[in-house]
Known about the structure:
- The protein is mostly beta strands and 97 residues long.
- It has one domain (7-89): Carboxypeptidase-like, regulatory domain (Immunoglobulin-like, Sandwich).
- The chain is 0% helix and 60% strand.
- The chain has strands at 7-15, 25-34, 37-46, 52-58, 61-68, 75-81, 85-91.
- The strands form 2 sheets. The chain has a 4-stranded antiparallel β-sheet, with no helix packed on it. The protein has a 3-stranded mixed β-sheet with strand order 4-1-7, with no helix packed on it.
- The radius of gyration is 14 Å and the shape is elongated.
Amino acid sequence: MVDSGPHEVRGLVLDVTGHPVPIARVDLYWRQQKSGFRSSSHRSTTTVADGTFSLTQLGTGIHQLWVSAPMCPAYQRTLEVAGSMEVVVQLEIDTGD
């Protein structure tokens, strides 16, 4: 069992005002257990200046998407990868209140 295939997750990370968030860390985790065997993978990238990111060569199945950026609480979302998909992540700025 490996997390490898023709699928892609593309996305855009925005702040609460709708502006792109550059250099946000994007992590994608995959874990599977079948017939007593466990397999897992971790992919990581950062957003570019326009807030976009892309993770390629993914297999099918449940993946956990985590996005973090300075002064923002981490964002987590479960994705069912079954083909190429696009996600939009909106991060809130942590003002410390």
